[in-house]
# Entry
Amino acid sequence: MATITSSDEKFWNTQQHIRTGVTTDELDKISHAATIARDSYPSTLNYRGFPKSVCIRTGFHADLNATYPVDEVDSESLELMRSTKQALDEAMAICRPGALYRLVILLFTKISAELAKLLIAGTSETQ
# Structure
């Protein structure tokens, strides 16, 4: 099996195909083919009957591994996406056998507080 070394690699460049008019079924086929080509198996496929290689939501859902903008996105949303990616990457960097869960929670708390300050500052500037 292939070894995943960063959160970006999970999607194997599927994000380059995300745009208006591309269906989630098409993205699933692209991701499935890329996963199989790397001698890997998509963990969601057939998990408790789930019929797809990736779970793609067209709305907002907080447990995604990655979020990609489609078309024009406001600056606050882009900052949210950047911050959550930063939190994921930093959490992955400290996760290993024996790592304490509280370190991950402290990391998320720190990044969330920084994001909240930025978003509040941005809101007050527009009012």
